[in-house]
Each structure stands twice: as structure tokens, then as C-alpha cells.
Amino acid sequence: MALEKNKRLDDIVAQAKKYQAEREGTYRERALKMYPWVCGRCSREFTNINLQELTVHHRDHNHDNNPADGSNWELLCIYCHDNEHQRYIEQVRYGSNDASGSNSQKATHNPFADLASLLKK
Description:
Largest sheet: 2 strands, antiparallel
Order of helices and strands: HEEHH
Strand order of the largest sheet: 1-2
Radius of gyration: 23 Å
Number of helices: 3
Low-confidence stretches: none
Structural class: mainly alpha
Strand content: 5-15%
Number of strands: 2
């Protein structure tokens, strides 16, 4: 019984990975034809040799939202892509990091406030 259950779970995972690879293959190829091979964050340039390190990022984080004009995509290197997803996870978990939010506190200390008088001495 346990072996049968494990095989069923393995089949589900394998099918999900297959669907993900098929879905990525279609929009990735379109994005690579549409945009220059440059990371949208760090401006790193890519060639055929290192193209596997360039990923397609969905701006709204919905991998099923793939408009034909590519407006939901941007090309990011694997490092910037990981950083973008980490920032998104932290925003969801901890809230907005927008300085205009009502929960944000503004800094009151100004380290250069009396600099002119200190320089005169």
C-alpha cells in the first residue's frame, strides 16, 4: 500500500515538473527572441555560452500570465531573479517596505546637522 501511494505521489510530481518545463519552454523562447540578452537589473550581458543563466521573471509573479506582447516578463540573471523573489517573499511576509506607508518611521538623527560649525573650529 505504501509503495503504491509513493508511486502515485512520484507520478504527480513528475507530471507537475513536465507541465512546468513545457510552460517555461514556450514563454522563455518567446522572451529570448523578444528582448536583448541583458539582465534587467544588473545589466549583465549574455551569449549562447552562458544563456542558461538568464531567466524570465514574471513581474506579477503569476507564471500563467503570459501575454503575447511580453509585457509581464523581464529577463533577469539567476542572481537578480533569486533576489527579486526573496524581496517578494519578504514583502508578503512582513509587509510593504514603502517609505510612504503609515507604519514607517522617519529617521530623526542628522549626523551632519552641526558640520559647518565643527569645520569652523
